[in-house]
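Why do we bother with holo predictions? Because pocket geometry can differ from the apo form. Keep that in mind while you read this record for FE2/S2 (inorganic) cluster.
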Amino acid sequence: MFSSSLPVKAVKKATIEFADSNKIFAWTESDGCLLDFAEANNLPAISSCRNGHCGACVVELLAGEIIYEHQISAALGGNEILLCSAKPATQHIILKL
Ligand code: FES
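The structure, written out:
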């Protein structure tokens, strides 16, 4: 499950599971943020500002941990994360998307 402890940096590669889409893909750091990665794999990600402010790209993190590589300002609840600003911080994460 999601941990509230903040990991210090992104991993270099990870397996990203998109639970609602029933798909799993291998992510590497060259794939960029999770929004870019989801779009590249034709997943139904929603976005607007792409900079951590509007909250349009919010999804629920079901397992694993992520890190934000820049400041975000969108309000988040529970296990919600912003795809546009997040990279994996554990080698396997599961997203509700
Ligand atoms: S697209 Fe606006 S916060 Fe991610």
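The helical segments are 34-40.
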